[in-house]
From TrEMBL:
Species of the source: Aureobasidium subglaciale (strain EXF-2481) (Aureobasidium pullulans var. subglaciale)
Function: Common component of the spliceosome and rRNA processing machinery.
CC per GO annotation: box H/ACA snoRNP complex
SUPFAM superfamilies noted in UniProt: L30e-like
Lineage: Eukaryota, Fungi, Dikarya, Ascomycota, Pezizomycotina
Region (Disordered) location: 1-32
Protein's recorded name: H/ACA ribonucleoprotein complex subunit 2
Length: 219
């Protein structure tokens, strides 16, 4: 009788051990699956996954949305004028310089606000020295995000141009995120700041390039 009790106790403890082992394996499997998913999110949208002070994982939905995959060639239909590869390199190079000179505004909200504040220039004057230059990304979805900007630029006689990649535009503008639009200005807008002749020349060259691109707009 005592032997039966011992055997029953051993079987019970063995079952508990097996159950605990199974739970651990399941938890480990789930943890592995979660880690894999988080890794996929981070690969698709760099900067989307972060860990807070308490060690909790946070996923930034805005970053994921901004970095949503868009098929190659899926450019907005109004991307006009659109830079070719050679012109794109020149524009991105100047955008990098603008970021260093602090002569760059980024994002739809900031650019639209700046354009509206800009006094409309004379069309002839804008050909030589525009008050600002707007650079847009053509691979934006939904297109309504930037569809109003070209019209706004035309109302203020501000030249604009499209580039094929928002990722490249964001990188040139010294941001980790893809950027839909930037605005390049001739000065940093700070009073008492000395004028940089090198940047002045670079801005004029960009102005000339964008105006030239605009002369070949496809209808």
């Amino acid at each position: 009788m005592a032997k039966d009790r011992v055997e029953k106790k051993e079987k019970k403890e063995k079952r508990k051990s097996v159950d605990a082992s199974g739970v651990k394996k399941e938890k480990k499997s789930r943890k592995s699956d979660v880690t894999a998913v988080l890794n996929e999110i981070e690969d698709a949208a760099p900067g989307a996954v972060a860990v807070d002070a308490d060690g909790d994982v946070i996923v930034d939905a805005d970053v994921v949305a901004e970095s949503a995959a868009i098929p190659i060639g899926a450019l907005v239909p109004f991307a006009n004028p659109l830079c070719d590869e050679k012109a794109t390199k020149k524009v991105l190079k100047t955008v990098k310089k603008a970021a260093k000179q602090k002569c760059l505004k980024r994002g739809v909200k900031e650019v639209v606000k700046a354009v509206r504040k800009t006094t409309p220039a004379d069309p002839a004057t804008a050909q030589v020295a525009a008050p600002a230059i707007v650079v847009l990304a053509a691979d934006i979805s939904p297109m309504d995000v930037i569809s109003h900007i070209p019209v706004l630029c035309e109302d203020h006689n501000i030249p604009y141009v499209f580039l094929p990649s928002r990722a490249e535009l964001g990188a040139a503008g010294s941001t980790k995120r893809p950027t839909s639009v930037v605005m390049v200005t001739p000065t940093a807008g700070k009073k008492g700041e000395e004028k940089d002749d090198e940047w002045d020349e670079a801005y004029k060259e960009l102005n000339k390039l964008v105006v030239k691109q605009g002369q070949h707009v496809k209808v």
